[in-house]
Amino acid sequence: MGASEDGPEAGADPGAEFAAAADDLVDRLAGVRDDEGVTSTFAVDGAELVLEERGAGPRLFLLLHGIGMGRRVFADLASHLAPHGRVWMLDQPGYGEAPEPPRTPTMERMADFVAALLRDRGETDAVVIGHSMGTQVAVELAVRHPSLVGALVLAGPTVDPAARTAPRQLLRLARDLLVESPRVFLIGGREYLRAGPHLRRKMTAMLVHRPEVVYPRVTTPALVLRGADDYVAPREWCERVATLIPGAQLAELADHGHETLIRDARPAAGRILAFVSD
């Protein structure tokens, strides 16, 4: 006997439906809207990226999230950048809504995936904005594929060599979260769950990367951005990053921690726009 018109569809997965409903609730509570961008996927070498596009114009802002995160954490930042150009928000392979790749990519490999997307779309001179682990992907993109990057923004850069272990990174993140808002807990918690059971391997890929070796090879204009209360990316480390990158600028945002691009992103957007306009 078939289901009634008002009943569940044949083959419906109650668990998937519940997850989708919970996902929608988190977005609503966090102020994230689904109808603001155009979403597509891009496959490369067995991996897949999810791309959400907003805005219009010649300038392209490319946003790269940190470990355990996904493109939706940038919803507020994108809303401030979109009036000034096109904004690309990515789910890197194995994060957000992008499926887990067969192997956990290195930071270098992740940068190559992003480069393949940019080349496929005919893009050059992008303003590449990385947050946390995303700064490691961003700097590899700038060094390995310099024609694709016109400017580089490293927000809360990792990994500080003084804390290059998982326990130390997690301890710093825990201290930072003590001053963060419920909005960050909602979005960040959801994205960490999405990152799945391979988060330990992803953390290893982040920790074995040595960005301090790559920084001196950057040839594009660069801005190092940190929240004044950021425990994950301390001021001493960010000063070193800015020193290692030729001609880089360093800026701090008061009353912000590590999630400065997620919580109240207006100050960060203003500083980024001023930097690319110089």
TrEMBL record:
SUPFAM superfamilies tied to this protein: alpha/beta-Hydrolases (SSF53474)
Transmembrane helix as UniProt keyword: no
GO molecular function: hydrolase activity
Keywords assigned: Hydrolase
tRNA processing is among the record's keywords: no
Pfam families named in the record: Abhydrolase_1 (PF00561)
AB hydrolase-1 domain span: 60-163
InterPro entries xrefs: AB_hydrolase_1, AB_hydrolase_fold, Carboxylesterase_BioH
Name this polypeptide is given: Alpha/beta hydrolase fold containing protein
